[in-house]
Amino acid sequence: MEHTLYLGSYTKKASKGVHQITLNTETQQLVDYKLIAEVDTPTYLTFSDDKKTMYTISKEENGGGLTAFDLDENGDYVKRAATTSEDSAPCYISYDQKRGLLFTANYHGGFVTVYKEQEDGRIVQTDRKHHQGSSVHENQASPHVHYTDYAPGSQTLLVCDLGTDTIVSYDVSDAGELSERATYTAKAGSGPRHLVFHPNNKTVYLVCELSNEIEILTYDEATASFTYVDRVATIPDTHTSFNSGAAIRVSNDGKFVYFSNRGHDSIAVFAVSEDGQSLELLEIVPTEGKTPRDFNFSPDELYVIVGHQDSDNLTLFKRDQESGRLTLLDKETYAAECVCVTF
């Protein structure tokens, strides 16, 4: 069987945009690496449900924003529309296909932006919320919005702000306008980066980039608010040099959580309690590359693929679905400046 991966990247060195690569599960290899969309700084990607449209973070000479590519009859992604309404390139993008809305998180500017697709294919800005504040870490002198996506099965937008140690919940109107509902404040200096929901849709695992921890939270859909439960470390006490938390994934069965460490260059694997509210560290596995900013499961969750920002390689692991543990298969596959891995 073959699975297609899409790789977002920086374009500071060899990469020229979004790449595609194939996971062959019979040979257990990653093959046929190729450029599919030339665009500057596509560090995060998302797709329409039918995969016929790809939306990427992008950068232009006069600013940043997003670009939409449509799949043509030849199977190529062709640029359809772009917007550069942000002074710098954002770092995250998500898509509401039902309402034609797109959301970006801008780390440098400290704001979340909403865009709406028009009938003629253009993409226009409909709202923007600038966050205010700071926190105790040297990297928290100002707001740094890093994630913006819906809570499962809802139209409540959850926004992680690394600079202010907060998750802000917004209602989103059909016209693409935001109204704030609630704010959760994490531990001072923790740096909320990304979050994922347990399959029960009540327990949340929050990436704390600066403190190298996962905060475990519960989510109340009625009030769009979070309650603190616990936190766990993602690196060993013996690691005292630089580390920065990056990506997090939870298996579909809810039994395991995976977390990537940049600096320690590893993936921490946790077993999850039945209610989702407790994590037990199983192993910390070297990723065999430098700066594992993102990773993902294959669709069948039998494999884990890790992208490395600073060593230009992909690492392929076999994943044991019963134990959750990872076994190294390959670490030599080339992928330039990879910072986003999606299927």
Automatic annotation (TrEMBL):
Which GO CC terms are listed, alphabetically? Answer: cytosol
Enumerate the SUPFAM superfamilies for this protein.
Answer: C-terminal (heme d1) domain of cytochrome cd1-nitrite reductase (SSF51004)
Membrane-crossing residue ranges in chain numbering: none
**PANTHER family named among the record's database cross-references:** 6-PHOSPHOGLUCONOLACTONASE (PTHR30344:SF1), 6-PHOSPHOGLUCONOLACTONASE-RELATED (PTHR30344)
What does the similarity note say? Belongs to the cycloisomerase 2 family.
**Organism for this UniProt entry:** Candidatus Jeotgalibaca merdavium
GO MF terms, alphabetically ordered = 6-phosphogluconolactonase activity
Tell me the protein's name: Lactonase family protein
- Pfam families named among the record's database cross-references: Lactonase
